[in-house]
Amino acid sequence: MSQTQEGIAELGVAEAVAAVRERRLTARAIAEATLRRIERLNGPLNAFRLVLAERALAEAGLVDAAIREGRDPGPLAGASYGVKDLFDVAGLATAAGSKIGAEGPPAVRDGVLVDRMRRAGGVLLGVQVMDEYAYGFTTRNAHHGATRNPHDLARTAGGSSGGSAAAVAAGLGAFALGSDTNGSIRVPASFCGVFGLKPTFGRLPRSGSFPFVFDLDHLGPFARSVADLALVYDALQGHDGGDPACVARAVEPVSCSLAAAAPPSRVAVLDGWFHEMAGAEARAAVAAAAAALGARSRVTLRGAETARSAAFLITASAGANLHRRNLQDRPQDFDPATRGRLLAGALLPADAVIQAQRLRRSFYDEAMAAFRGFDLLLAPATPVPAPGHDEATIRIGGDVVPTRPNLGLLTQPISAIGLPVVAVPLRTAAGQPIAVQLIAPPWREDLAFAAAAHLEAQGLAVSPLAAPC
Questions:
Q1: DSSP letters of 399-431?
Q2: Is 137 part of any domain?
Q3: How many domains does the chain have?
């Protein structure tokens, strides 16, 4: 691939849109260059499960036709992207990382957010590898292989949206759509060094995506800059009646394309669980972000550990309920790592699950009390930078603990109460990616975006392209 083609494939969202609108590039040229880059780099990464070249070129052609005819091609005109393997894509079975799903009937239409991307001028490149049924933090999949970190192929990309984050980090698309139930956007964003958004629960409709846990599932985007993340998020917003959690009166679109907006002045660092369970690199990232945001206060949410336990219980029981029939009829077709946790969830007593729901509410009330004094809360996204693929354990708080279930211990409490979070990538002293969470009150994604833009402008938040080989 020539240097010119490399440069085209590496364009971000805003750059691609500007080039297409100004007729400096065609959407087809961007799609072709990106498909070539995927062909060259996806092998070692394993970010895409399926590449949809024919669809990508067709969608790019529609954007180019709109430009030629003087019609508005949409706010994402020509920007290429991929989706996690749990979004409905017309004509494909929605596999959700599973063998069982891959053998199911094809989707008859695109999911709501995929359709919104098409209408906005986005160009779909394909579907991306994930942990089976979104139950994991490492994107190690018995059916489709492991996704590797584009910054270091020996390390995990995180999960369960690991293919989506790795693709964006490596320039295999300008952005991607993922999902976050317990941290599945924020963990891979941290490990792969990209920006990620988990919006308020109910903000973006989940219609046309494969579920995991109704009470905890969120959909959201990845991108390599705050401006790009905001452009995509703004195009995704809007009510859809197909998702009962997407309440019309609560999801009026709020533009987050506010890179010049002043950051919130009342920012506090989360102490307690969020400090004790973070390693030295994670603490250093929070300290740097706090200094840049003028955050001198610290807040302890005493129920964080309990909320994390509640999220574990709700996740396991809801997942087991969802997959009960296949666990009975086709247990051999599950990823063994997923099957064991789902079977354990099926054995949980109802009393434990009901109590977990009560504890969620208590922790939500505690967080709302903190927001009476502050506009934004700051915490690490992961306890450590990306561990190696074969590291079965990590050290946290002086203890050696299993890697896979503990990579999300700082994201799970926040997922459990549905707060909006922008994951902002920083760098350790050794140059490894690691992110902080900018946590806002419900429906105030704009506050997190403004703070993220400030960190980016200060040079702390960076998402350089990785070049795996």
A1: EEEEHHHHTTTTTHHHHTTT--EEEEEEE-TTS
A2: yes
A3: 1
- Residue 406 identity (one-letter amino acid): N
Provide the pLDDT confidence category of residue 1 given band limits of 50, 70 and 90.
Answer: very low
Q: Is the peptide bond before 80 cis (omega within 30 degrees of 0)?
A: no
Long-range contacts from 252-260, C-beta under 8 angstroms, 24+ separation: 254/443, 254/445, 254/446, 255/230, 255/446, 256/230, 256/445, 256/446, 256/449, 257/227, 257/230, 257/231, 258/230, 258/446, 258/449, 258/450, 258/453, 259/226, 259/227, 259/230, 259/453, 259/457, 260/453
Q: Does residue 437 contact residue 410 with C-beta atoms inside 8 Å?
A: yes
CATH code for position 182: 3.90.1300.10
Q: Does 112 map to a domain?
A: yes
What pLDDT, in 10s, does the model give residues 363-404?
Answer: 999 999 999 999 999 999 999 999 999 999 999 888 999 999
With a threshold of 0.85, does the pTM exceed it?
yes
Distance between CA atoms of 439 and 423, rounded to whole angstroms?
A: 9
Catalytic residue annotation: 84, 160, 184
Q: Is residue 62 part of a domain?
A: yes
| Integer Rg of the chain from CA | 20
Tens of pLDDT, residue by residue over 173-226, are 999 999 999 999 999 999 999 999 999 999 999 999 999 999 999 999 999 999
Range of the domain at 274: 3-457
What is the pLDDT, as a whole number, of residue 83?
99
**119 CB contacts (<8 Å, ≥6 apart)?**
74
Q: Name residues whose C-beta falls within 8 Å of residue 69's C-beta, 6 or more positions apart in sequence.
A: none
The answer to whether position 153 is within a domain reads: yes
